[in-house]
């Protein structure tokens, strides 16, 4: 399935709008990742464990959105937007959300309308 932040896909024509779809993931960050990130915050450097957690959350949110678009009969999602938030009393939860418009696309060369 094509997922894009743009309002159109080059060489394709939107033939039907199937509605807005969402993907949401909320994941906890464990104490060991927090400890490692805290040390890196002091001495500098990247937190591989947080980056990996963010990558997994982002991929899961996109996959969930794709499943919901497919259920609506779409073959693409246009205008996709992604957002990140930290939640919880100690900011120990990461929320990744994405949304977009589920559409049916057809090759422009095949379109007779």
UniProtKB/TrEMBL annotation:
Coiled coil: none annotated. Gene3D superfamilies: Hypothetical protein apc22750. Chain B (3.30.110.70). InterPro entries: UPF0145_dom_sf, UPF0145_YbjQ-like. Belongs to the UPF0145 family. HAMAP family: UPF0145. This is UPF0145 protein C8U37_1214. It comes from Trichococcus patagoniensis. The lineage of its organism: Bacteria, Bacillati, Bacillota, Bacilli, Lactobacillales.
């Amino acid at each position: 399935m094509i997922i894009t932040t743009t309002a159109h896909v080059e060489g394709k024509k939107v033939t039907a709008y199937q509605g807005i779809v969402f993907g949401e993931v909320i994941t906890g960050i464990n104490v060991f990742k927090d400890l490692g990130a805290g040390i890196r915050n002091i001495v500098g450097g990247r937190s591989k464990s947080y980056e990996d957690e963010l990558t997994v959350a982002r991929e899961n949110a996109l996959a969930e959105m794709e499943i919901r678009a497919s259920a609506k009969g779409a073959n693409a999602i246009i205008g996709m937007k992604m957002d990140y938030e930290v939640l919880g009393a100690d900011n120990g939860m990461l929320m990744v959300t994405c949304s977009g418009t589920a559409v049916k696309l057809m090759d422009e060369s095949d379109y007779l309308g």
